[in-house]
Write a structure and sequence with these properties.
The complex is a heterodimer of chains A (350) and B (731).
Chain A (H helix, E strand, L loop, with lengths): L2 E10 L2 E11 L4 E5 L6 H9 L6 E6 L2 E2 L10 E4 L11 H11 L4 H14 L15 H13 L5 E5 L7 H18 L3 E5 L2 H7 L2 E6 L2 E6 L1 H6 L4 H6 L4 E11 L2 E6 L2 E6 L6 E7 L4 E4 L9 E10 L4 E7 L2 E7 L11 E6 L4 E4 L2
Parallel strand pairs in A: 3-8, 3-9, 6-7, 7-8
Antiparallel strand pairs in A: 1-2, 1-4, 4-5, 9-10, 11-12, 11-14, 12-13, 14-20, 15-19, 16-17, 16-19, 17-18
Helix pairs in contact in A: 2-3, 2-4, 3-4
Chain B lengths: L3 H16 L27 H8 L5 H15 L4 H25 E2 L2 E2 L2 H7 L11 H20 L7 H29 L9 H8 L2 H4 L2 H4 L6 H29 L5 H13 L4 H10 L4 H10 L10 H26 L2 H9 L4 H30 L2 H6 L6 H10 L5 H26 L21 H28 L2 E3 L3 E4 L2 H7 L1 E4 L2 E4 L4 H31 L5 H13 L2 H11 L1 E2 L2 E2 L4 H24 L4 H9 L4 H12 L1 H17 L15 H10 L3 H26 L17
């Protein structure tokens, strides 16, 4: 294992930014710290980097206790949100910087830096100033600069937040591809759950300075452990339902007039909070509806090209649903019948 | 690196305790005479020699603590444990060092209670010398290494060392001298504490009388100082605002000329304006002569007194207010004004309800600067004050004049300090720490709104005649040095320059026979030594304050701000009190003048550095740190190259202020180390205006040349909203 946090706490005066977290990042994997702004994910990343030292707890990197060591003494490097390219140096000098500081000769540093630039496809940009590069190119320089030091852990702090949507998808695929090709250990911070799901082996979701849940992207999306997580990982509608257990692996959820059998081994009978994914709600005209449906009325309808979005008043509350049938749009005021797919109805415990 | 550093420092400390004279030498280190007496001579003996041969047992515990540090460095231990050991040993060493330095002076124990506690002491010691200083530095370094090893200061020994250096030097050369004033103010002539004496010294008519208001007689110096400072603060703020508005918000054609006006007072010794006023309004000045010639009115000494000093200070400090306010006016976001205009407000309403309120913190700041400049001013009151005494001149006469009353000087300095700090705290209360007219990193593409007509006319009516008058005064000051005797004989002559700067070419080479050369070279030399040190210390302090988070950061920032508010006169007196007795005995040396320059001017370097540094994204530093660049390398390769303009500014300022300052150094100069400004002041007091003016002009030209040279070498600084592009940033 490459990075290990044991009961780490970070306080700034009275305020607690990170309230006692423990986790492990296995070597060769990409782990994402995900959470809303102010949840402590960036502070956690900076504690891995050594830019902040923990108030309590232990940090171990590559088997070495580095709790009191500063950034320079740790074998990590970091790609910053703002890229932090040195504006008074050209691309090659930027990539050489860390190599020179580690004591390499000018020639060795330049050779390794060129290899690094080749990795990110910027071999012909050596002489450019950072200000002459596009956002995506600056990003790649920042990655190359961190990569050439061959750190035990590579850190990314919201690396895509300054890019436009199209470039964002491309860059995240490049980062993932690079990580898998070189077998890097990467810790990645983002507040964008889609980005997190696309790049990660594992995701650690943080909220208010604590770890809310950790696991694979699929675990978190399909089995969120808390209402916060159900809201945060993808969209979901909170609703109150009544549970009754059918067998050890299945529980029946009654929502207004319909009943859905959901895979669940632990929930107790009685009232419970359920989360309903918008894509699991099939919106149909009452005439077409099969039995066991939930009646409602369209409150708002919007056309988004690939799909329709509806807000629907029902007995179980206002539900938000997405519907792929753009050729058969419904308008506000239309009565509808909703079919709920069991896979998108999640019983939230705790 | 970190494992070797404690070893190196403790070894260096011990070596200095063995091989360098512990005490200060009369003749200085470079004579080499001490080499033979390191053991046997009491004057020259090293620390160890003093203990073994000369019975100074009180030095032993400090050296033992140093030896303990060496042991801690050599013994195998974990990081944490080694740090703890170093911390304990070096702290003990420092405490013991300070205790013996303060407790034992020229005549044994320095306080009666120490004698009663420990009995008579037959030993004595003079000021600290090279050996003692190196041991002190070594102990401080070991303390910072100990802290860093225990994870303090981000585990970085360089940062820890820098914090320790800055903090201890501020304590030693700003806080300690000011503390000495407090002590001195409470002491009687024999050095005994007598709190009642302070009351007695301060509660006199001469300080607090208010008779000038009722018409009969003069007011006390405290009121004089206050009235002058309030008038100067208000006047300079109003004038400065008028100038700032004209330059930034109108299409006025001579903006460049106005900008020059802001450079002039920076390169001018503060009393030059006073001199020029005398040339125009003095008894034999132009106005009086004209009145006598045309209407037969007897010449008067009208200019001497409140009105003269007030005028001179207005002229001298308005440009400073302008400099403060131009930043403020430029900082008001055009977008806000455009927003106001789209909300149905006309230009005048926008100006009065949006722009002016946004400038309020800046106005308060400018007022504070004018106020503090005024109470700290020494040159103008002494040249133009006449009977109108203010605190700074009173202090001078108490120390230098026939009275020679240190207690009174200290009490007055205390009063002056209270005024300055009072203004400082009042300003902070009124404005708060927040300023809402800041340049943000967000793109701000709006255009500044032109000034409404009413405001434009008012500003122009005030500012333009004033600017013309200022230029005229400088013109007269320049011409004054080129005529025989102003007021009597206007024959053009270069005599004054010749008298000051004559150079004779003889068989032995050049001989500098002019009267001014001695003070001129001393000034240049000391200023050239002080400027780089001022800039370095100021920028390092700024870097620590902006970039590092450590316990006591807020206190350190407050301390540097505070020393900015301390008037020069107070610093000067404080240095005299603090450094003419052991443990630091440097009165009368060049060192005390250089130290005074550094700690007088450093706060400005700190502010400039902080302003420049907060425009550079912090993630650049952090990137360097995660790329294996240690703190000193980060500072050297990343921060400093991006700070070029600030470095140049700090260097220029450090040099120029050292050359032009009067108030602080007037107490510190000696016949051997005479400075240009103090020499000129003496010439003025003796009525030798020609030479004084010629010398001042030479200084101004020199300063301008230095500034232009540096400007030329570095190139113009690109200012404007685009310059903020460096700022990216983490939320």
């Amino acid at each position: 294992m490459s990075v290990q946090f044991e009961g780490v706490v970070k306080r700034y005066g009275e305020a607690t930014a990170v309230a006692g977290i423990s986790f492990t990042v296995e070597a060769g994997t990409l782990v994402t710290l995900l959470g809303p702004s102010g949840c402590g994910k960036t502070t956690t990343l900076r504690m891995i980097a050594g830019l902040e030292l923990p108030s309590e707890g232990r940090v171990v990197i590559a088997g070495r206790d580095v709790t009191t060591l500063g950034a320079t003494q740790r074998d990590v490097s970091m790609v910053f949100q703002s890229y932090a390219l040195f504006p008074h140096m050209n691309v090659l000098e930027n990539v050489c910087y860390g190599l020179r500081r580690s004591g390499q000769s000018r020639e060795d540093a330049a050779r390794h830096a060129r290899e690094g630039l080749l990795q990110v496809g910027l071999e012909s940009y050596e002489e450019r100033q950072p200000s002459e590069l596009s956002g995506g190119q600056q990003q790649r320089v920042a990655v190359a600069r961190a990569l050439v030091l061959k750190p035990s852990v590579l850190l990314f702090d919201e690396p895509l937040s300054n890019l436009d949507a199209r470039l964002r998808r491309q860059m995240r695929e490049e980062i993932r591809e690079l990580q898998q090709r070189l077998g890097l250990t990467v810790v990645y911070v983002t507040h964008d759950q889609q980005e997190a799901m696309a790049v990660s082996d594992r995701i650690i979701v943080m909220n208010a300075g604590r770890i809310e849940q950790q696991g694979s992207p699929r675990d978190l999306y399909e089995r969120p452990a808390t209402p916060f997580l159900a809201r945060f990982m993808g969209e979901s509608n909170p609703a109150r339902g009544v549970l009754s257990r059918l067998d050890p692996a299945t529980v029946r959820v009654r929502l207004g007039t319909c009943e859905i059998d959901v895979a669940n081994a632990t929930a107790a009978d009685g009232n419970a909070t359920v989360a309903i994914r918008p894509e699991a709600i099939a919106v149909e005209r009452p005439a077409d509806a099969a039995a066991n449906s939930l009646a409602g009325t369209i409150a708002k309808a919007s056309y988004l090209g690939t799909h329709m979005e509806y807000s629907i008043d029902t007995a179980a509350g206002v539900l938000f649903a997405t519907c792929p049938h753009v050729d058969r749009p419904l308008a506000a005021g239309d009565p509808v019948a909703l079919q709920l797919a069991p896979r998108g109805v999640i019983v939230v415990e705790g | 690196m970190i494992s070797r550093a404690p070893l190196a420092w403790s070894a260096a400390g011990l070596l200095a305790a063995i091989a360098l004279p512990w005490c200060a030498l009369q003749e200085g280190l470079d004579s080499g005479a001490w080499l033979g007496g390191l053991w046997s001579s009491e004057d020259y003996a090293s620390g160890l020699g003093q203990i073994v041969e000369h019975g100074k047992w009180w030095l032993a515990p400090t050296l033992l603590a140093l030896a303990a540090c060496l042991a801690a460095a050599l013994l195998p231990a974990t990081r944490q444990r080694r740090g703890t050991l170093l911390l304990i040993a070096s702290t003990a060493g420092l405490l013991l060092f300070v205790a013996q330095a303060l407790g034992i002076g020229l005549r044994g124990w320095t306080a009666a209670w120490l004698t009663t506690l420990f009995g008579e002491l037959d030993g004595r010691q003079v000021g600290l010398g090279a050996g003692g200083a190196v041991v002190l530095v070594a102990l401080l370094s070991l303390l910072s290494i100990g802290l860093a090893l225990r994870g303090g200061f981000g585990g970085d020994a360089f940062v820890a060392g820098a914090v320790t250096t800055v903090a201890s030097s501020i304590v030693l050369f700003t806080a300690w001298p000011i503390l000495r004033i407090l002590v001195q103010a409470f002491q009687d002539g024999d050095g005994l504490l007598a709190p009642a004496l302070l009351v007695e010294r301060l509660a006199t008519e001469k300080i607090w009388s208010l008779r000038c208001l009722s018409g009969g007689g003069r007011c006390g110096v405290a009121w004089n100082t206050l009235f002058l400072a309030l008038g100067c603060g208000a006047g300079t703020t109003a004038l400065g605002l008028a100038f700032a508005l004209i330059v930034t918000r109108t299409s006025f054609g001579f903006k460049k000329t106005l900008r020059v006006l802001t450079v002039l007072p920076i390169v001018t010794p503060p009393f030059v304006i006073g001199l020029a006023l005398i040339l125009v309004f003095g008894r034999s000045g132009l106005v009086n002569q004209f009145l006598e010639w045309s209407m037969g009115i007897q010449p008067t000494r009208w200019i001497y007194g409140f009105q003269g000093v007030f005028l001179a200070q207005l002229f001298a400090f308005t440009p400073v207010a302008f400099l403060v306010l131009i930043g403020v006016v430029e900082g008001v976001s055009p977008t806000l004004e455009e927003a106001s205009q789209t909300l149905r407000a006309d230009r005048w309403a926008t100006f009065t309800t949006v722009s002016l309120p946004l400038m309020r913190p800046g106005l308060a700041n400018a007022f504070l600067v004018g106020f503090i400049e005024s109470i700290a001013d020494f040159g103008n009151p002494i040249v133009l004050g006449g009977d109108y005494g203010v605190l700074s001149t009173e202090i001078y006469f108490a120390v230098v004049g026939a009275q020679l009353d240190y207690g009174r000087a200290a009490s007055l300095a205390l009063l002056l300090l209270v005024f300055a700090l009072g203004a400082f705290f009042l300003q902070r209360r009124v404005v708060g720490t927040g300023s809402y007219a800041t340049i943000s990193g967000k793109g701000d593409s709006g255009l500044p709104t032109p000034l409404p007509d009413r405001a434009r006319r008012a500003a122009a009516c005030v500012a333009l005649p004033w600017a013309a008058f200022t230029l005229m005064l400088y013109g007269f000051a320049f011409v004054g040095g080129l005529v025989k005797v102003w007021g009597r004989d206007y024959t053009p002559t270069l005599d004054h320059y010749a008298k000051a700067f004559a150079v004779e070419h003889t068989a032995d080479g050049l001989i500098w026979t002019g009267a001014a050369w001695n003070s001129f070279w001393t000034t240049l030399k000391l200023a050239a030594i002080a400027a780089p040190l001022t800039a370095a210390l100021g920028l390092i302090a700024a870097w620590l304050l902006v970039r590092q988070r450590f316990a006591g950061r807020a206190t350190l920032e407050f301390a540097t701000m505070l020393s900015f508010a301390v008037p020069g006169t107070v610093i000067g007196v404080a240095y005299v009190f603090a450094f003419n007795v052991p443990p630091i005995e440097i009165t009368g040396t060049a060192m005390i003048i250089v130290l005074c320059f550094i700690f007088r001017n450093m706060p400005v370097g700190v502010r400039a550095g902080m302003a420049a540094m907060s425009q550079i994204d912090r993630s650049l530093d952090e990137a360097s740190l995660t790329l294996r660049g240690r703190a000193p390398q980060t500072l050297f390769y990343v921060v400093l190259p991006l700070l070029r303009p600030a470095i140049v500014g700090a260097l220029v300022y450090g040099f120029v202020r050292a050359v032009t300052t009067v108030s602080a150094v007037v107490f510190l100069v000696t016949a051997e180390y005479e400075l240009a400004t103090t020499y000129i002041i003496l010439r003025v007091i003796n009525g030798d205006y020609g030479l004084a003016i010629a010398y001042s002009c030479a200084l101004i030209v020199l300063m301008l040349a230095v500034i232009l040279l540096i400007q030329f070498a570095v190139g113009d600084r690109r200012l404007g909203r685009r310059a903020v592009a460096l700022k990216g940033g983490r939320a």
